[in-house]
Amino acid sequence: MEATGRVYQQDSFLFSFESRLLHILPLSSDTNHYSLVLDKTIFFPEGGGQPYDTGNICFSHNSTLFTFLVQEVKIDKSSKIISHVCKLKEFQQVTLIPSIVSELPLSVISQLDTSRRIDHMQQHSSQHLITAIADKRLNLGKTLSWALLSDMCTIDIDNPQLKNEQIEELEKEVNAVIRRGVKVIFHELNSWEEVQKTFESKIQSRFINESSAEALDKIRLVEIEGIDLNPCCGTHVTSLSFIQMIKLVSVDKTCGKSRLTFIAGERILKKMSFFLERERDLNKLICAGPDEHLPFIQKTQAESRLLQKEKKLLMEEVAENVAKAILEKANGQVDSRVTPHLIYERAVASDGTLLVHYHRGEEEGKANLCTIDFLKVIQRHLAPPPQKDQGKRNQPQQKGNQKQRQQNEGSQTASQNTNEKTENGSKHSAESSNHQISSSAEVVFFLTCGEENKEGSFLLFSTVTPSADKDKISLLGKKMCELVNGKGGGKGSFQGKCLINKSMRDLLWSTFITNYS
């Protein structure tokens, strides 16, 4: 099979074209996806940093119209054959394809996705212009690579020290050239030797080597008249005025180079439409104009930080009250209390260990405290972490004065708490150390939270923390996770996640009682 004719290189503005279908290959036996080969094509295959074209290929056979949606275009570098990966629009026509294969070649009409082709031309020609001006006119550095993405384009420049002032100057220069409507000219030569002989003095870019030119039967050069000349297989505009405008969006330092992000042509209009629509929405939302957007956000952020602090204080206060209620349950001072949103349960293991369960569900219309963070605050009140050692050298002296110091500190704390309650009313002063468990036995707490029939959290911990108990808590937590298909981990305390509902809680609680001894 002969090489596919590349019509897109002769005329990038040819959006519809008649050619011959030479080959249809099913890509799988049970789908409507095929690979089509034409004698000539207007579809650009991916290459040189530019994505492939899309569109459709249509033909009529025995009064039936067949439409293939082009989803990808590939080129085989060795055979120079371009294949079009397509999806047959009407699935029921799959059974008719074998009869078509026997009658090939057939005349077909190719139709490009015009907006995609125009966008790619604008972005690719813009890259050539930016690269040329940055390197040759402003000496900012050579282009190392570039990428044409779905919403932005990037150019990597061999200069990690690009400054905003230089980017602003580059933007002014490229747009000035666009306004002049400089021509874009295409050249095809038979060999690289001919290229060097004819254009060597004009080519001044990173592409001055044969390996950078595509290994095709013809070598194609793209010239921005008087500014740049480069080997390139992609689709381009014929005049820079067709680009309309280039906007350099940002520059980032990465791996010893600068990555320049830009948009051009229709992408700028789409971006502007998006920004203006968002601006109108913000105007309505905050009842103020664009000049007030930033001050409003800054004020809202400051208020949010204050509210977060207040929320943390209130959470501490609620958690302390919950801890008191849990300890009352541990001491057997209240009966089991079950409401739609709060559950307290108590049991005794075979070795005398007290097992206490607390569950908090989400209440409609109230602040959501069904979080693992809230459970951890409760944990601090129920089982405060041990004090850090202050050094063996001072230990004897500390022990000698410990009783007197505790008495002094206790009286001072009591006095301070009284003053704080008098002055601040809302400030809680009870420390977690004031909550005492009447029994000398170990207490293991099982705290759960979450909305019914949704993923929630649970927390396991003990009032004593020798390594053996840490291991016991960890093993029990893992077993409970396996039982309810949950996940979690931890040492000393075990934090997990699982589906929260009554049957799950009952199962976990019964497993907790059975296995902890």
- The percent of residues in helical segments reads 25-40%
Determine the number of helices (DSSP H or I, runs of at least 4 residues). 11
Total strand count, please?
22
Q: Distance between termini?
A: 79 Å
- Strand residue percentage: 25-35%
Shape: elongated
What low-confidence regions span 5 or more consecutive residues with pLDDT below 50? 204-216, 390-394, 396-400, 410-434
Profile the largest sheet.
7 strands, mixed
Q: Nearest-angstrom radius of gyration?
A: 37 Å
Helix-strand makeup class: alpha+beta
Task: Trace the largest sheet across and list its strands.
Answer: 16-17-18-19-20-22-21
Mean pLDDT, nearest integer? 82
Describe this entry's structure for a reader:
- This protein is an alpha+beta fold and 517 residues long.
- The protein is built from 11 helices and 22 strands.
- The strands form 5 sheets. It has a 7-stranded mixed β-sheet, sandwiched between helices. The chain has a 6-stranded antiparallel β-barrel with strand order 2-3-7-6-5-8. Strands 9-10-15-14 form a 4-stranded antiparallel β-sheet.
- The protein is elongated.
